[in-house]
TrEMBL record:
Residues 332-351 are annotated as: Disordered. One of its GO terms (biological process) is G protein-coupled receptor signaling pathway. It holds the Pfam family PI3K_1B_p101. One of its GO terms (molecular function) is 1-phosphatidylinositol-3-kinase regulator activity. It comes from the Eukaryota. GO terms for cellular component: phosphatidylinositol 3-kinase complex, class IB. This is Phosphoinositide-3-kinase, regulatory subunit 6b.
Amino acid sequence: MSSTVEASMYNSIQAILRQAASSCNKGMLRWTLHKKVETHPSNSVSLVRVLVKELEKVERLDYKMHVIPLLHTLNYVIIQQSGHIPCNLFQRVYECFKRLLTLPEPYCTIALRYMRSIKMEQITPGALYQRRVIAEQSLRNIHFPQQEKVFVFADPAVFSGSLWQTVRADLVLASPQSDTLARRVLLHTLQAGLEKACHGPILTQALEDLGEDVEQYFQEVVLAVEQSIENGEAGRDQYQTRLQHIYSDILTSANQDPKARGSLSNTPLPSPEIHFHLWTNEEELWNELVNFTLNVSTSERNSMYQEEAEEDVSKRVSLLSVDSGIDKDLSDMEEREQRNPFTRSQSPCFRGRMKPEDKMALVQENIKGPTSSTPLPKEEGNRTARIVMMGDDRVLGRLAKVYHSIRKREAKHLILTKRVNLQIYYIPITDEPIVNSPESTSQVGDRLSLASFLGRVDPWYESNINSLGAMIPKLAGTQSSHSRSSEPNHFLVDVLSYYLRCGLQPVHFTLYSVKISVSGQTGSPVDEVFVSHLDAEFPEFKTLRENLRQERSSRRRTRKTHGTCGAVVSVNYSKVSLSKQEVVQGMSVMTCGVVISAISPNETEGLDFLTVNFDSTNPRCCTEIRTQNIKIRILEDKTFTVCLDKDCRRKYTHVQSIEISPCLDPGYCLQTSSKFSVGEEREAGLSKYMCKILPLPINTFTGINH
């Protein structure tokens, strides 16, 4: 039986690794494989054996292209089903990861992170699962303060009414019920720690019979896990002894045999709690981050008050005396909700339009707390906000603008950055047909240039995430057929959960600042930011430019010489030489349009330069330059139109000139421009070690090694 299962797992892995398989099929095969293990946990042992053998083969044959899929697949199985994996197989996995540390980046970095997780799971079985669920579901406790929130922002330009409702239902409604999460954590941790000394079905029934009395056992198990992690290998026996006591107490309280032994119950890893937004207002992202920070402040105060109360009660951990830290006249229902550790953290929300300075003042007030005599815990960075963008280049362009705005606010206050770790993810989807032509990266109609680049640098991202771009639009069309079934479709939320948990290697896209001078406008130019694309078009030559594009797309060249090739513009740009010295060059060009791209068609060339193409019917005027800084100014009594990141919502008309340069980090600008006192001069000198350019980090499975 075991050999049959192992052969099936081997065939599945080989199908995923096979180069001839399409990216879409690889992603579906990966999902099917994990669902098999989730449904039949006993198969996890066979799958782990196969994956370890394949990794050992990679070491011998130097098949580096297989390392990333094997590493992520193996780690995800261990998170899901660690309780079914024997100790000797765990040690074999650990030794295999250890040998991978000799590989170059990013393989060694990923192997090191997973090796540490394996070691922690060896010493404290059940820790990975428990910490994951507590953080993702924001389960209140005083021993493990990590909290995570997942915010999905969908671009309304791409998501129609039926599509966004379908996607929202698949993501939000798939979240598990909060009252079952603590029981699930207890069940998994006790089974992983006690193994054969635990009876899963009896324990499941006992936890259900206890009802709200499960709270105290949940807190005890969280404390036992965290103390075991802190003590290391020396505390392993004590950890198992404590779990045995908790197990016996639970069965005794539920009138069950405390010495029951038997089979284990299945405890699938629940999907994270997901907050879905149709991103109509750019301030919504900022508001969610501020709400999350306010929630953190309230939660930390509650934990602090709870620790003080526990000094006067029995050693058994409980949550019977918690001051909510807010108004005293709460209703009974609200009091019960505040005292329930399984209830997800609540926070005040900004329903109206508040000024940014008012929101920041409210954040500062909540962080300081009600009195200055009781300081807050010094823990910082224990909260993670995972931002998932759904759309095409346009949604990442809007994100770049908001991200720059957030960094600008943080350069002055530094509150969110200290308390919330921001992680950004991207699921590409567009409302236009995907163009597969060689010239697609330079066409305005191709709005997936960023996704294409990510797919080239990370094939595992291409297989699991880029493949969703063709699947998601079909969800609305199949909504009626799914509605007839009582079983919801978990494919999308499963893939998103996998991406959030394993996609931790960022690709840094350089942001570019553009100063736009508009005709008739007094004062400073308009400051904007773009991440992928800027298109400048001259209205008088729009028809001429469209004809030129049609000629290029059909790969035919006309011999007809047009009388007018376009408008005359002055171009000043800096050319970086091999010695890193900037050489300023200037020229005049007659053009009917300018396309500036920050995404290179070749992933080996990096993301630190712009490719500027001048469209013209005259071949001598069809110039292409590469630069980081450029200024374009029209010399005639005309104006042009500027469109950022292929988004018509970010279009400027009657433009006379544009000036583009890499976007400086607002924190760096503040350091270099501030006036420091004598005692702070040395600290100001640290600005030369700071990163000058502000990047937009998008998480992938592989990342880019700089």
